[in-house]
Amino acid sequence: xxxxxxxxxxxxxxxxxxxxxxxxxxxxxxxxxxxxxxxxxxxxxxxxxxxxxxxxxxxxxxxxxxxxxxxxxxxxxxxxxxxxxxxxxxxxxxxxxxxxxxxxxxxxxxxxxxxxxxxxxxxxxxxxxxxxxxxxxxxxxxxxxxxxxxxxxxxxxxxxxxxxxxxxxxxxxxxxxxxxxxxxxxxxxxxxxxxxxxxxxxxxxxxxxxxxxxxxxxxxxxxxxxxxxxxxxxxxxxxxxxxxxxxxxxxxxxxxxxxxxxxxxxxxxxxxxxxxxxxxxxxxxxxxxxxxxxxxxxxxxxxxxxxxxxxxxxxxxxxxxxxxxxxxxxxxxxxxxxxxxxxxxxxxxxxxxxxxxxxxxxxxxxxxxxxxxxxxxxxxxxxxxxxxxxxxxxxxxxxxxxxxxxxxxxxxxxxxxxxxxxxxxxxxxxxxxxxxxxxxxxxxxxxxxxxxxxxxxxxxxxxxxxxxxxxxxxxxxxxxxxxxxxxxxxxxxxxxxxxxxxxxxxxxxxxxxxxxxxxxxxxxxxxxxxxxxxxxxxxxxxxxxxxxxxxxxxxxxxxxxxxxxxxxxxxxxxxxxxxxxxxxxxxxxxxxxxxxxxxxxxxxxxxxxxxxxxxxxxxxxxxxx
Length: 625
Description:
The longest helix has 25 residues, at 239-263. The chain starts with 18 loop residues before the first helix and ends in a 63-residue tail after the last strand. It is globular and about 70 Å long. By secondary structure, it is of the alpha/beta class. The protein has 19 helices and 18 strands. It has helices at residues 19-31, 47-55, 79-87, 119-122, 135-145, 153-158, 179-187, 210-233, 239-263, 291-297, 315-322, 358-375, 388-401, 415-424, 463-470, 474-489, 508-515, 522-529, 541-544; strands at residues 36-40, 72-76, 95-96, 148-152, 168-174, 189-191, 270-274, 283-288, 302-309, 329-333, 345-347, 381-384, 407-408, 430-433, 449-452, 501-504, 555-557, 560-562. The model is unreliable at 551-625 (pLDDT under 50). Helix 14 (415-424) links the parallel strand 13 and strand 14 (430-433).
């Protein structure tokens, strides 16, 4: 790697903000001999441009011996981030490769057949006459030969050991703050009727411990091998049999990894096993601190690494979680260039939103949301509900208040479609979202305000979370919540001249700021220190509804139309000359509770069935073959 090329490799015609200084600091960090450089860059820093400049410093074939690794990988866990890269003309040097299911077979008669279900996957010994033109294999060949290949983190991990995507000189991971969690989630093994094709033929014992799970995994692996061999022996398979064969192969690999790692006395991985329904019930086998897994899927894939994120909050803790030696890791801090007054935090806390307090707190938050909607007439906003249970209850309350005509929700299956429809709408529609605190660009008038309804604590019913808390890892717990809050706060302010208000409704958010104070980036500390209670209008739902604007409305609740007509409305909130919300003392509706003592309840339902299998809360993250 030649870090001296970093300025020449920067793809934009000019620098903005702190980009030039950041490039110099990154260059110096690599030049000092660090194998890994963490780049903590807030929203709007142009992380993708920085990533492209770093990747361009990778050794080229002309500079290397035949046995040397050359070129670079760019990878990110977020499909939407990869989509943004694909659409950015400044990043056209990155060749993107996606999983097979994202490409359609071009053979005659194979209408809308994804490549992973094409005849080449269905028929034994199939010789495809158009393989040289196949969109998947063509993209794969180009990506493997380009100096910079771009892919999702899941595809990158899945291709570990591939002859096509071998070790490269440099690996750049964007949005890398959740690398340890991604590895844990991806390495987890779910055994249930949906994930095990031969489930109905199995006798599932009670998992009394990890040793019992290892014994069962050994037996299950052998059964899966026999069924897979039977399928492979067939001359032709149906699409359903292809899916079964591929899943069996994947499951065999997962089980083999678990058994081998557990029996390896040198492995640092701790495994936990969940079987909520006991004998005969579904099983989840989860790794903690999967250092060996990351070594194989990430750290063995390159010579030098750059990990970029706004929320790598604690270098020592991050390195410990992902199996890195902090002595070989440098942290580069990129300053925030957005004026702090453009990104205000407002304290509208109404009490705790943990499970046992929710019945009391949620109605108060619904009233507060109405007042915020009154304040922001004529402006779109987003409400982070955290779970579908909270989303549904809050939507019902807003309906009861008569402001449902301004609210749009989504379900698990239509989240992306509803999001895009809302973004394309004009007026003042409010999007009541679940798990959209990251990877969402709401620049300009796409959203001028947002409400965070609940502190995003990890679910303490998750065995990994419970295990860590039993060991006293409370700093990790609060740091994880802070990370999500910071990510959420960046959704509505995307450039130095953009502005957007963030309202905090759960009093436990104040506790997060207090408990994770030492891990808070200086630029976010500045936001917290300026936090105030806003002077919101008195509660008057009629003045918040769409009908108050003198027009009909069309809103969507999970894809169902409510009302008809156009949207509109004039703003009535108190604004400063530059359009930002004025602050002052709370007008008060008697429902505020700013208590921040005590920890979150073990009954917290923060996971709340927002995904199935290994699907991420962000839709379609696991974009693999």
